[in-house]
Amino acid sequence: MRPDTPPPPTLPAIHASHVGIWLSDARGTARRVDRGEAIAAVAATPHLFLNAPLTGDRLGYPDLSGLDLLELFAFLFPARFAVPTPAGMAAALGLAAPANEPAVAAFLPQIAAAILACLDDPAWPEREGAWHGMQALARQRWPWAPLVQPRLPAPAGDERWLFARLPEWEEAPPRPQPRQVTIAEADVTARLARLTGDGAEQRPGQQDYARAVAAIFAARERRDAPQMLVAEAGTGIGKTLGYLAPAKQWIDQSAGAVCISTFTKALQRQLARETEKLYPDPAMHREKVVVRKGRENYLCLLNLEDALQGGFSGRAAILAQLVARWAAYSRDGDMVGGDLPGWLPALFRRNGTTALTDRRGECIYAGCPHFRKCFIERSARAAGQADIVIANHALTMVQAARPRDGGAPATRLIFDEGHHLWDAADSMFAAALTGQEAIEIRRWVLGPEGKARGRRRGLAARLADVASYDEAGDKAIQAAIHAAGELPGDGWLGRLAEGQPWGAVEALLAAVRGHVYARGTDPKNADAGYGLETELADPDADLVAAAAGAGDAVEALLRPLMALGKRLEALIEDPPDWLDGQARARVDGARHSLGNRIDTLGAWLSLLGRVGGPADPDFVDWLAVNRIDGREVDAGLHRHWLDPARPVADIVYRPAHGVLVTSATLGHGGRGEGGWHDADVRTGARHMDGGVQHFAVPSPFDYARQSEVLIVTDIARGDLPALAGAYSRLIEASGGGALGLFSAIRRLRIVHARIADRLARAGLPLYAQHVDPLDTGTLVDIFRADPHASLLGTDALRDGVDVPGDSLRLVVMEGVPWPRPTILHAARRAAQGGARYDDMVIRGRIAQAFGRLIRRTDDYGQFVMLSPSVPSRLLSAFPAGTPIRRLPLDEAVHHVQAANVERRKSAYPAFSPS
Hints:
Mean pLDDT: 88
Low-confidence stretches: 1-6, 524-529
Largest sheet: 7 strands, parallel
């Protein structure tokens, strides 16, 4: 420590949980206080705390302000991982965690001192840029600035700030087509052995799986007929290395590229780690393996610059500075599931990070001054040269449907988490003419209106040079601006409620709203939630007339946009002298954006033509009013494919040479009445013209010894007090380590409110989606780190959680996960065999939920369903040999308690429920 460096701060601190509230004074003496005294103390004097939103929620004081240790950590250690709990921070800083909750308040100053100590460390790796960032934060009156600024000396020389530090990407020639090669099974087996490591346990199932996957790398025999394999690999097989081994063998022999597509960000991160075994050298790994996501996931440097130069104010301006610090050290600029701490945006309740990404398609591409340093463009170009691209299902489909990047696409596609292809396609290939969608297009055409601020610019501003040069282009722009005035504007929801719509499209939305309220069933007290919907069948005269008027308005906008697109193409083909690099970049960006909007408007016209016209048997159309907690947020017409796997087969599979679709729960190994029928339906394999192979290998786990299923028979559906009591008793019996799954957010919140305090008094922390102000990834991190914690959630936790070991030993489902009785589901149910379709969906959900429980050979746990009547036909969702018992709650609690006692007796509990 330098002689003039101030000592570590001695500050009061506060810790609040479901158990109680503790204050620690400047001398480190902690005492328990009531809520009123705590609020008075933090209002009078800035206190240290950990996670302002969570602490504020526990206090019942959402306006809590002071010194949040997480903000300090984010500034001094950008892009570093830490679980945002006292124990998690202790682990990140190498401190001994506090022994109990009363000790936490006194421990918080130790965390502050440990974080601030980096300022005196000459080897602090994130020093560059910190001084300039601190000056900006001091101007924003960041609470930590008076404590950090005196200890952070000015750099000796000029210091590079963010936009100077970021490297530029370089253009590279397109990757050539892969050579036609044949990979030998012996080579695949040998490579798998090298990847798993010397002395590793031999897993015949994994070897069989790898050899089966090798088939997709054979040369295809004819166009639009890829070598395709639909494969189920049970949990624990090691399917990731099972398909990476043949993929790497083919890459080495052919010089080709492989695209691996996932559904969850968690699996993308896992794959990035697993591929380090293929490329152990970090620099080589960065070159050969690229993780790609949709552009809305990445930081937009132009948006960040706007925020730093006054576009953000107040707390949002502090967030912008912290994001700028992170951007200088980020691996890839990924703000959603990347190395930006998931808890950071939640500290700023309005979540300004959404304004820092390109969520509105405003990118001007090479016209941007930061284009050569853009994270999105760097990722796209790196992917063009990489051996392995790890994308998500949505992006893989978008690139197949709307290719933009140059270079040869990957000829081999691997879809992991293949059971989610149906849902991903359902979202990707849908169309919706709603108020929210329409107002976005209006803003894209017109730019800011009234007092609106920000970087958004309309067509006229973006293409001013085109308009001044090309008379036809200028006329098209002016016609589009005039036509966009018929789209909904600010305040449209209020005008609809008052019966005073403006313009043809608002008139349509008003007619839709009236039609839905007249014919829809209000499910506000039902599990379906708060939305209203009705079929698009036998529309009344008002709706038909409104649709005709809206169709004219949409066509009036579509025509000039199409004309403008042709004028921009002509400019590119025969460029004038003034079309320099910057101008060409604006034109290219506008062409790309135009194409997307033209596609959307064309889908709207098709949907409007359905009102009063014949139904298209390939689609399901309906009208809806969307509500949240009873408050209207949107209204409009919707269209989904009856079978969304069809466009996947046509657009994604057919152009490829080899396709693997795989999952742990894809087709139940071909077991059951329909064999592989369910898997072929959900993946779209049934739409391929022959040649689809199937393969299944069961999990190696001993489910008869490691697990049991308990079906509780005396909790009546809809009895919320009994449901809450069951969750509480089961979690207490297990000593925490429970994952509670719900199909309705309302019931989750009610159960959480009833049991959180009781469990906390027993020393069992409880966290919940849709309750705690934390993102899902952070909640899972907290859950994974604390074996006494439990977590309640909905679908995202049923599918995307990987918590091996003792932290997850009990999964509780509130009941059978019946599909919501929506119009879309009813249509698909009728088309796919009625109850059999329902059973396929339900079995898949149960299998995914059960799959969270046993992740390793030393995992042990119980799966509880709180339902008096689980049909026996659904029990095939569980792995063969899994013990299944129907019993009352008291006996189920006894089973869970007995297993917990055995667990505590030894490090590897003798579970053996049989």
